[in-house]
Amino acid sequence: MITYKLYSNTGSREVNEDSVGQLEKDGSCCFVLADGLGGHGKGEVASSIAVETALKLFDEEGTTPAYPAECFKKVQETVLAEQQRSQELADMKTTMVLLRISQKEVVWGHIGDSRLYHFQSGRLKSHTLDHSVPQMLVSAGEIREKDIRFHEDRNRLLRVIGAEWGNRSFDLSVPVEQREGQAFLLCSDGFWELIDERQMVKTLRSASTVEEWMDAMVKIVNEQGKGRDMDNNSAIAVWVTKE
Q1: Residue 160, class by beta-carbon neighbours within 10 Å (0-12 exposed, 13-18 middle, 19+ buried)?
Q2: How much is the pTM?
C-alpha cells in the first residue's frame, strides 16, 4: 500500500514558485515536484507546467518502461515551446524531481537541485546529487557534502528545464524492487537546506504514519527557518507499507 503527503509553503517570499502533484493509475503512482527558478521570471509558471505535463503524460502512458525518460523530454519541450510563445515567459526555468512506483518496481529521476531521498527500514539508502556548482565542488573533493547547504554558490545550477541541454541533462535511477518499508522524500532546496539527513531519519523512525513524518520534518524546517529569508519550501513524503 502506498501512503503519502504533499506539502508546499511560500516561506518569506511573495510568490510560491514550487509546484507539487501526484496521480494514481492502474496500480501505479507518480509523484512530481518542481521548483521554478527565482530571478529568471515566471518560475511559478515553469514549475506548474512541469508538474502538469508530467502527470498528463503519466495518465496517458505512465506504466510504460520509457515513461520516466520521455517525461523529462516532454516537459523540456513544453517549457521551451511556451518560452517561444510568450516574451513574458522567455526566461522561465525550473528544476524537477519525479518518482514512479509501480506494483513491482520503483524508479526516479531529477534535474537541478530538487532532491529525492530513498530510505529502507528507517535507514537512508541514497539521495540524488544536485546539478549545481557546490555539488561539482564536492565531486572534485574541494568541499564536503554538508557544506552544500548555504554555500555561496548553492543557487548556481548547471542543468535545469528551460535551458538548452547538452549531452547530459536529467538523471534517472536504476529501477529498484518495490519493497515494504521503503520511504521516499521529494523536496525542493528550500526544504532540504533546513533539515539534515540525520533529522530526516530520526523523524522517520519515530513516526507511525507518513503524515506524522511530514509534520515532524516541517516543524524542523520552520524552526530552522526562523529569522531567515526563507525560500519556498515543498516536499512529498511517500511510504510503502503492508496492505
Answers
A1: buried
A2: 0.95
Q: Residue 182's beta-bridge partner residues? A: 120
Q: Which of 78, 115, 80, 113 is nearest to 98 (CA)?
A: 115
Q: Is 32 helix (H, G, I), strand (E, B) or coil?
A: strand
Q: What is the dihedral of CA 191, 195, 201, 203, to 10 degrees?
A: -90
Q: Are 92 and 162 in contact (CB under 8 A)?
A: yes
- What phi, psi does 31 have (nearest 5°)? -125, 135
Give 78's contacts (C-beta < 8 A, 6+ positions apart). 49, 53
Cell numbers linked to 9: 509553503
- 222 and 199 Cβ atoms separated by less than 8 Å: no
Could you read off the pLDDT of 38-50 as tens digits, one per residue?
A: 666 799 999 999 9
| Backbone φ/ψ region at 212: left (φ over 0), alpha (ψ -120 to 50), beta | alpha
- Rounded to whole angstroms, the Cα distance separating 229 from 221 reads 13
Share of the chain above pLDDT 90, in %: 82
The contacts of residue 61 (CB under 8 Å, 6+ apart) are: 67, 70
